[in-house]
Structure formats: C-alpha cells, structure tokens
Design brief:
Its main location: membrane. This protein is an alpha+beta fold and 305 residues long. The protein has helices spanning 2-16, 18-53, 65-70, 81-93, 105-116, 120-124, 144-151, 163-206, 208-216, 221-256, 261-264, 273-303, and strands at residues 58-62, 97-103, 133-138, 157-162. It folds into two domains: 1-51 and 166-301, no CATH class; 56-139, 2-Layer Sandwich (Alpha-Beta Plaits), CATH 3.30.70.3040.
Length: 305
Amino acid sequence: MRAQFVLSEIGVGLRRNLTMTFAVIVSVALSLALFGGSLLMSDQVGAMKGYWYDKVNVSIFLCNKSDAESDPNCAKGAVTEDQKKDILSDLKKMSVVETVIHESQDEAYKHYKEQFGDSPLAASLTPDQMQESYRIKLKDPEKYQVIATAFNGRDGVQSVQDQKGILDNLFTMLNLMNRAALGVMALMLIVALLLIVNTVRVSAFSRRRETGIMRLVGASGFYIQAPFIMEAAVAGAIGGGLACVFLVVGRYFTVDHGMALATKLNLINFVGWDAVLTKLPLILAASVLMPALAAFFALRKYLKV
C-alpha cells in the first residue's frame, strides 16, 4: 500500500510540474551527454597518443648545394660522403635509436611529387634541390632531445626535426577542446541541479497540506520525502536515458555512418563501441543519483522533517 501511494504521488508530481520537469530532463540529458562525450574524447586522445607516438620519427635533414648558399647552418657547404657515414655510424651507436632509414634526394623528390604533385611549386623543383635525410625511429619518443643535442649544429646537418612536436600541438588542441566541453557540461549540470531543487520545492509547496497532515499522523521523514526524491530520480533517469541515446546515435552517425569519419579519416584509430557502452552505466547511475541527492538535501531544509 505504501509503495502504491509513493508511486501515485510520483505521477501526480511529474504531471503537476510538467514544464519544469521537461526542463530538468533536457538539462540532465545535455549535461550528461557532454560528460559522456568528454570521457570518450579523453579515451580518443589516449588511443591516438598510443597509436601515433609509436610511429613518430626524428628526421635529420642534411645540407645540399642550395642550402650552402642560403642557410647559415650549411655555411661550410653540402654534406660530404664522409660526414654522412659519420652521422650514420654515430646514430647506430646510440642506445635510444631503434632503426635508421636513409632517404636520398631522389627518394625525397619522388615522395614530394606523390604528395604535392598538383602544387605549382612541384613543377619547378628538381631532385638536387631536395634534402637527404635520416629517418630515426626512437625506442622512446620522449628522447628526442638526445638526438637534437647530438646533431644540431653539426657539419653537414641542416636541421633536426621531431614529428612528436607536431603531434603535441594537435593533442594540446584536442585537450583544450575537451576541457571546454567539460566547462559547458559543468555549467549545464549546475543549471540542471538548480532546476531540480526548484522543481522539488515547488512540488513540496503545492502539496504542503498533504505533507502537514502526514506529519501530524506520525509519518516518518523518509516516507514524506520519498515521493519528491523519486520524482527527481525519475526525471533524471529519463534525462540519462536520452543522454545515452545521444551518445550512441552520435557515435553511429559521426564515425560509422552519416559523416563516416572512420572511412574518411582512416589514419585515426577511433575508439570502439566497447568504450561507448562502458560509459552508459556510469551516465545512468549519475542521472539517478544526482537528482535524488539534490532533492534530498533541498527537502531536508524546506520540509524540516
């Protein structure tokens, strides 16, 4: 009988404050969808770091005849065969180096034509204008500075470049976007909590006669509070369900179908469905607990039970 009463009061409360209940549902859905999206973004950045950092190279670009005329680092002239042998020998002796690949001027020219063959500059370039280089795979990508210190400023070396630096800029941008999403999520969460508190208080005020009678007949504090807490929990659960739908639909249409980013950006290792599905229980739990706790603390002060 008591359970039936509580359930009936939940339905009455939700219908009585339909507009505010709808606002709570939408706020909870959007804030938790952003929360889930931020968690997935963190997983995506972590997966991309593991994938790309394992593939980054350090490149040692060697001086050519054109550099000798224009680049201060190559003031002593183009790299000689002896200098190339010394550089390669020193690289192979370094414990941080895993593999070394030599790219000749002809190979560099061929790769450039493959990538930028349509550019106007490509038509005017010749192989002797391209730079020879050593492509170095490090055992630990964080050890780039060891290579830079050893070879920067060395005779025959034009520059030492680390691809990891380019990736770091990309990941910094992604992390900033993720923090911005978390900031919006926090704002939406605050709005949702305020709406929940106000909705519960309006509901409690509109039923103050019933709660007063229940106090007089000796009803327990939890028994009086239960319908209001359950109303907030139900509204939150609906919002959490919508947030889960947003995440699943968003993943489906942006990565797998619709925009089909997995096909168009095949160089990016997107997180799988397992990562999405593991976030859904967390979102549902938060959608129930957050409104229920907000309602509980709001009622303790308001009803003084």
